[in-house]
């Protein structure tokens, strides 16, 4: 849906968007980047009490019980007294389950790699003409919340192969890079095709690698991604060829801005999962529809997967790709990534025993 992508870009710029549904219209904007001027403009346009819409993860991280996955707080007090990014909730009069429009707003913020927290306000009757004028003049985008929600849930299921070229690698000389783009044009993923497809072993060696700019490119000591990436390329080459999907899912798909925020929270003592939760994200926001669509485009149905992550296996299996075998792929343990790896093993169920058991750097 064309309007949806435009609206996500408006939200990324801090511009409000009007979402309509059966329960009524709702003007929304992201909490992040919120400043008093923008907030009072929003309130003037609506003449209504604003709500703060947050995820269950955010509420639970702040020690509250959540009645549903997305929650709407009817705020109390003057706008200048709110600090919506603070370590506790602002004063509120009521806690409600979020409406369809409010849920869609959170989905749009996630897709835009913003913190999933919105300020929403239902416009009063006397403000509607002015809003309609802004919509008609193209200043304000208006979307059907149900349709936008459906479009968000379909994202990634359709990819288009855009371009390709041979890119010889140090660890695998016969390699082609193929770029795939998701239907909404917002995400691009690479298939790194190693060796000659006609000579690949069966099941085909596959790695799903989520982007980690800090680790993959700069050899960050906080994680093991860069070494896993290179070991996977070399490993697939040694197995006789296959495909590494390099997925645009920075920071377990919370985006680079939020990953840096999460790393900041880890410096304060939170583990990698609780840091994401504090920002309003679940333990792992990644979906693998685009990866499945790429494998289907490449005609791959049976795979041996290079991973330590059980969720990747179940995601492929649920989509009809048969995971015949699994092989571990490891980086090195460093004093800086030990806590990260231990959390992944202990709380996310990653199979890292071979790595952590033999490690004596602690
Ligand atoms: N949110 C968040 N993401 C991180 C952090 N450190 C690394 N990441 C991301 O975690 C993801 C790791 O991806 P992958 O290497 O595909 O792996 P994995 O889930 O560990 O699974 P396997 O490597 O296949 O076993 C990348 O998207 C990184 O950017 C962190 O502290 N916080
Ligand atoms: Zn990393």
TrEMBL record:
Question: EC annotation?
Answer: 3.5.4.25
UniProt keywords, alphabetically: GTP-binding, Hydrolase, Metal-binding, Nucleotide-binding, Riboflavin biosynthesis, Zinc
Q: Which Pfam families match?
A: GTP_cyclohydro2
What pathway annotation does it carry?
Answer: Cofactor biosynthesis; riboflavin biosynthesis; 5-amino-6-(D-ribitylamino)uracil from GTP: step 1/4
- Which GO molecular function annotation, any one, does this entry have? GTP cyclohydrolase II activity
Locate the active site: 284 (proton acceptor), 286 (nucleophile)
Q: Which NCBIfam families match?
A: PRK00393.1 (NF001591)
Q: Which family does it belong to?
A: Belongs to the GTP cyclohydrolase II family.
Q: What does this protein do?
A: Catalyzes the conversion of GTP to 2,5-diamino-6-ribosylamino-4(3H)-pyrimidinone 5'-phosphate (DARP), formate and pyrophosphate.
Under what name is this protein listed? Answer: GTP cyclohydrolase-2
